[in-house]
Amino acid sequence: MRLLLVEDERRLSDALSYILKKNNYLVDTAYDGPSGQDMAESNIYDVIILDRMLPGKEGLSILRDLRKQNISTPVLILTAKDEIKDRVEGLDSGADDYLVKPFSTDELLARIRALGRRKNEQIQSSNLKTSLFELDPLNCEVMMNGKIIKLTLKESQLLEYLIRNKGKVITRDQILSKVWGFDSDVDMNNIEIYIYYLRRKLNLKDTGVRIETIRGIGYSFREDNNV
């Protein structure tokens, strides 16, 4: 599970990041509001842990902007404000959970697990349909013309990302961050290789559905006849 931690208190952020990584989470960190929002808008995270009081831009303002962009990633708000009205304001802004400082790491981990289960339930119930085939991201399978095409995990994640952004141009950097992670040392050429694998497995030639190469930029999933 990939987490984004947006927390300006460096010691707390470093401590939380260490604990989360020790519990086998992939963690990216931001120390101010604008940086945190930029990273959150990449839409590659399973859970976002968002401090309320941040330099540059306040946490709830970031959260409202994310929800306006239809980014539904579960968000856990961290705050020192513990009055009922503050909790209500956070939840009304689109937060999924609210944790008041100071808190125990066991409680934080439990809440992250709960939010992660909620996200997984959404994923399990949401196969992606195109005019030509249906992708089951949970089982890494494509159903096309009554046949099942097995994909590797990376192939499935890449195809899911392209379909969810149908019609948009997705840069190589965005793909690398989403599928392999911000800190990955994977070579950019890997993306071309996996695009080639997908095209070969799906055999999309003359179907009206294509993974288009945008030279010098990235790729785009397109359909001539939208469903």
TrEMBL record:
GO BP term, example: regulation of DNA-templated transcription
CDD domains named in the record: REC_OmpR_DrrD-like (cd17625), trans_reg_C (cd00383)
Domain Response regulatory: 2-116
Location of 4-aspartylphosphate modifications: D51
Function (record text): May play the central regulatory role in sporulation. It may be an element of the effector pathway responsible for the activation of sporulation genes in response to nutritional stress. Spo0A may act in concert with spo0H (a sigma factor) to control the expression of some genes that are critical to the sporulation process.
Xref: Pfam families: Response_reg, Trans_reg_C
GO terms, molecular function: phosphorelay response regulator activity; transcription cis-regulatory region binding
Origin: domain of life: Bacteria
Keywords: DNA-binding, Phosphoprotein, Transcription, Transcription regulation, Two-component regulatory system
GO cellular component assignments: cytosol; protein-DNA complex
InterPro entries given in the database record: CheY-like_superfamily, OmpR/PhoB-type_DNA-bd, Sig_transdc_resp-reg_C-effctor, Sig_transdc_resp-reg_receiver, WalR-like, WH-like_DNA-bd_sf
SMART domains, per the entry: REC (SM00448), Trans_reg_C (SM00862)
Species assigned in the record: Pseudobacteroides cellulosolvens ATCC 35603 = DSM 2933
Domain called OmpR/PhoB-type: residue spans: 120-223
Transcription as UniProt keyword: yes
DNA-binding region of this protein: 120-223
Keyword Kinase annotated: no
PROSITE patterns membership: OMPR_PHOB, RESPONSE_REGULATORY
Name the record gives this protein: Stage 0 sporulation protein A homolog
